[in-house]
């Protein structure tokens, strides 16, 4: 099965059902299929063929979803770009992906024009929100005549997506996901479209994130209506649940906290809501416990996964969120809510390995590893990182340290690397440190993550100034803000005389986390 089957089946089973509801407009599954086919025809007229890349820089809109299917129907590979990227980051992403077509939302048009001479791979730029001088428009593509040529054959192991994910080594890593990677999850975990079963799924996580892509494709596979938000806002989310009679949604912990802390929470009718999935970052226990109390009719699911696994590989199910049972069961569930990521999903193999790669018994901490049909075959254009991530036995090394109990519930106990995860976004310390080191007043710097009640983690820069320099924390954060996406910029700065180093001269971030890791420093 490939992802094009998701749409063709849904459009055959429930053609008139709304596929995407967005700001008062409604597109049926039949219309989504037709629009995607017209886009595929247009992309092929522009020269897009098997393996060619079509990149998109846009918030959550129906164009995003139909552009994915249109790209893949043409035989191309879809590249969702992080719309928070700054100029230099954007140039790197576009050139590294070798995108020949770039789809651009209106709010990003100015930045794209600034870098036109720096993105030689791009042959065509398409404006998504109305005409732009010198560019094609989305409406132009949809109105191109059909050439009636058959669509190219799509193999299940063909790459359908290139998804960028930050690593600790600086530049983002690129995960190529095949049709089979995505279909493996769907076949085992999502009910296919049914003419008698209609649900509405509120999608508010960014579509450039693997959770957003997986969520949209799962909805299409399941014949579910997607209620789509451009970007998350707690009041918009609450209003949409009420107006669209939403049945399910996926949130990162920060989003859930903002929803339940909203002063208007009780004003909205959320009685249609049945399932809330959360993940992408650690969930504070106080937040999920409060959410359970406030939404007793909702079944909560904690989903854990990575971009490299096409998203979810374990789940802590609704039964594990039930705090109404016997005292013994309540105590067990409270423990799981405080730290477990749940059971492996069907089709997923997991283990905990020691430093020599040997399986560990229950209760012993090691590195969590994963294998199965969802796991990528390797990073794009990076054999070295692939060899580091996937061993000879086919295990993907997640860099997450953890353990499992006797009932095969998995628990996290920290990262095996220095990755910072802020509201579900991976932040590479080295990438931010490269910007800090370019500041004229900074001698050296290190970036660490510190706990934050709203974001899960926040970024703290530990800085050594050059002799005689007097840069302030505000000046340093402003400098970073001009060169990095806002979520990567240091939230706070601590000034020190020296950084701790090991005998080989490498900065030991663990020592800094021990010193500063209890709360953000301002």
Structural descriptors:
single chain; 522 residues; alpha/beta; 13-stranded mixed β-sheet; five-stranded parallel β-sheet
Any overview of this molecule?
α1 (3-13) packs parallel to α8, α2 crosses α3 and α9 packs across α10 (253-261). A 13-stranded mixed β-sheet has the order 2-1-11-10-12-13-14-15-16-20-19-18-17, sandwiched between helices. A five-stranded parallel β-sheet has the order 4-3-5-6-7, with helices on both faces. It has a three-stranded mixed β-sheet with strand order 23-24-25, with helices on both faces. The radius of gyration is 23 Å and the shape is globular. It is built from 16 helices and 25 strands. The protein has 522 residues and is α/β, with parallel strands linked by helices.
Mean pLDDT, as a whole number? Answer: 91
Work out the helix count: 16
The largest β sheet comes out as: 13 strands, mixed
**Beta-strand segment tally:** 25
Low-confidence stretches: none
**Could you say which structural class the secondary elements and strand pairing correspond to?**
alpha/beta
Task: Indicate the radius of gyration in whole angstroms.
Answer: 23 Å
How far apart, in Å, are the first and last alpha carbons? 52 Å
% residues in beta strands: 25-35%
Shape: globular
Residues in helix, %: 25-40%
As laid out across the biggest beta sheet, the strand order is 2-1-11-10-12-13-14-15-16-20-19-18-17
């Amino acid at each position: 099965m490939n992802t094009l089957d998701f749409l063709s089946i849904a459009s055959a089973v429930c053609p008139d059902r709304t596929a995407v509801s967005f700001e008062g407009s409604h597109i049926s599954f039949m219309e989504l299929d037709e629009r995607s086919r017209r886009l595929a025809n247009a992309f092929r007229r522009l020269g897009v063929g098997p393996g060619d890349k079509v990149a998109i820089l846009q918030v959550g809109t129906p164009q995003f979803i139909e552009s994915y299917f249109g790209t893949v129907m043409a035989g191309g590979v879809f590249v969702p770009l992080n719309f928070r990227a700054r100029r230099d980051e954007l140039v790197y992403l576009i050139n590294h992906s070798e995108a020949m077509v770039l789809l651009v939302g209106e709010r990003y048009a100015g930045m794209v024009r600034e870098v036109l001479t720096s993105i030689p791979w791009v042959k065509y730029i398409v404006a998504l929100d109305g005409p732009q001088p010198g560019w094609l428009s989305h409406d132009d593509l949809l109105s191109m005549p059909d050439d009636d040529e058959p669509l190219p054959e799509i193999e299940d192991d063909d790459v359908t997506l290139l998804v960028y994910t930050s690593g600790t080594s600086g530049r983002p890593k690129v995960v190529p996901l095949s049709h089979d990677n995505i279909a493996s999850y769907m076949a085992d975990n999502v009910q296919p479209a049914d003419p008698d079963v209609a649900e509405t799924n509120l999608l508010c996580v960014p579509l450039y994130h693997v959770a957003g892509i997986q969520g949209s494709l799962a909805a299409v596979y399941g014949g579910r209506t997607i209620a789509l938000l451009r970007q998350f806002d707690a009041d918009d989310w609450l209003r949409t649940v009420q107006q669209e009679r939403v049945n399910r949604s996926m949130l990162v912990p920060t989003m859930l906290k903002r929803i339940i802390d909203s002063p208007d929470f009780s004003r909205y009718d959320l009685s249609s809501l049945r399932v809330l999935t959360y993940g992408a970052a650690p969930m504070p226990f106080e937040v999920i416990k409060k959410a359970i109390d406030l939404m007793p009719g909702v079944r909560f699911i904690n989903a854990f996964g990575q971009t490299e696994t096409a998203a979810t590989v374990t789940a802590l199910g609704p039964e594990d969120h039930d705090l109404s049972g016997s005292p013994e069961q309540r105590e067990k569930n409270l423990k799981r809510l405080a730290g477990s990521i749940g059971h492996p999903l069907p089709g997923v193999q997991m283990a905990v390995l020691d430093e020599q790669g040997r399986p560990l018994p229950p209760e012993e901490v090691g590195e969590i590893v994963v294998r199965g049909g969802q796991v990528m075959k390797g990073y794009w254009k990076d054999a070295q990182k692939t060899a580091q991530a996937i061993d000879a036995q086919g295990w993907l090394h997640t860099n997450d340290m953890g353990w499992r109990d006797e009932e095969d519930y998995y628990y996290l106990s920290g990262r095996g690397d220095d990755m910072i995860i802020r509201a579900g976004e991976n932040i590479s310390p080295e990438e931010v440190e490269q910007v800090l080191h370019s500041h004229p007043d900074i001698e050296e710097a290190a970036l660490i993550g510190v706990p934050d009640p709203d974001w899960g983690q926040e970024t703290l820069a530990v800085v050594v100034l050059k002799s005689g320099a007097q840069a302030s924390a505000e000046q340093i954060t402003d400098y970073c803000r001009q060169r990095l996406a806002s979520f990567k910029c240091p939230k706070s700065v601590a000034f020190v005389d020296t950084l701790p180093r090991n005998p080989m001269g490498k900065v030991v971030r663990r020592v800094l986390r021990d010193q500063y890791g209890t709360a953000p420093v301002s």
